[in-house]
Predict the structure.
Amino acid sequence: MAKKKNKKVIRYRRPLNINVGMIIFFIIFIYLVFSVYTYLKREKIQFYEVVDGGIVNNRIYNGLILREEQVRTADRSGYINYYLREGKRASVGSRIYSLDETGNLEALLKENAEEGTSLSDDSLSDLKKQLTSFVLSFQNQDFGTIYDARISLDASVMEYSSFSTLDQLDKLAEQSGAVFEQVRSDVSGVVSYGIDSFESMTTSDVDAADFDRSTYVKTIHKSGDLIDSGSPAYKIVTTEKWSIVFPLSDEDAALYNDKTALRVVFRDYSLSTPAAYSTFTGKDGAAYGKLDFSKYMEQFISDRFVDFDIKVDKADGLKIPVSAVTDKNFYLIPLEYMTQGGDSSEDGFYKEVYTENGTSIVFVPTTVYYSDEEFYYVDMGEENGFKAGDYIVKPDSSDRYQIGRTASLKGVYNINKGYTIFKRIEILDSNNEFYTVRRNSTYGLSVYDHIVLDASMVEEGQLLYQ
């Protein structure tokens, strides 16, 4: 009998041969992974190209409006009905309001107005303009202005719908038995119905508390309200001249010190206009600015407070971000100690060096970052050849100066050469985001220079790749 063959196959395992090439490849792979990881994790250094041009540095203020306002009071009690809208100009003899002792006049006017013709296209167009103007200027924090706008629109509708009815008002009152008094304007001017405590205020009465809007109260009567005898019914402004007063900081006072006129911008009204400027001392002894206008009084007739900008002259120079600016300390060395070393044209100083053989003098080339009328500003790093306590010698003299006095400069890190170099700047103007600095100043910046956007991320002499 034939012997059975064993068909079981055992796979041959090849031994793992680790050679030098595999080890080197693995090390390179790990290094690349680590480099990519650290690059992605680290904060990126961004750059900024210096551009030519200043910054617009408008200053924003909250002002108080003063006008020549004459308050008119009711000579009897009754239900009031107005016939002119807020901000409408009245001539002498114009019907302003009526006082109805029975309270039936308002219903009578509405009833007869409804029986007449509808509002004209011009009247509807004016109402739409009033609504559009209010919507564009409305801000959530001034929610109370909605009620002022409603009262003004009510007066406008009453005015437009009552022209024909008012002509026969006496006849209607007689038929209905209504008892009322018609009140007409005794002067020419612009009518307003908002009464507050500022109508008779002058500059000598102004103090800081007047600018607190949270305590401001304005009373407005609307048609149909019952008012008492002697209560304010309306006020009239008889001149186009008006003023805005506002608090002045020490910085503001210095900025506008030599100004007699300023350009004022009212953003909510899309209006820019010049104004005569002056200053005065308020009741509290503080300094205030005063802007005088001879136009646009009617547009602000309903306002007591107003936000506005003052356009400041734009400084001409280089525009750089605030984040690029830093401060750096330097040693101060008197100007007369500067010299040139031997055959070299490099600037530097003679420094005393102490050895076992005695004292000697060596020339140390130095980079100067700035100079004023007395001193050169020299880097404080010991790698630059100087440290506190070192002595330098004046050329052709035995006078010595001990290094130690320091001062700081504002500047940016220039990277035109691929590494950071501190460059001093001279600031002309600023706002929250940018500085305007002097162009082509000695040791300074020029247009199209590249600087580090965030100076806090680098240090002097750091190598960078743009």
